[in-house]
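Backbone shape codes
____________________
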Amino acid sequence: MKVSPKFVGPIVMAFIMATIMTGFVTWMNLGFTDDFLVNWGRAFVFAWPVASVAAFLALPIAPKITMWIVHQINGYPSEK
């Protein structure tokens, strides 16, 4: 079975983002307690699937929003 980078990329990106964000937010909310890793793991297990779906949903929209922002700042469309 072959997989496409278009499928794997958002999942990997979501993994990285969910790992960083859940770790940071868990630390901010609870500090480094004795059960920090358990709490971080629990948050990650719920966050990664949500982040993966969000990445797939954002994938077609993000370039359009990016180009709109660049156009607003620069006053002209930038090169792709």
Remarks:
- DSSP finds three helices and no strands in the chain.
- Residues 5 and 11 are 10 Å apart (CA to CA).
- The chain has a mean pLDDT of 90.
- Residues 5-74 form one domain.
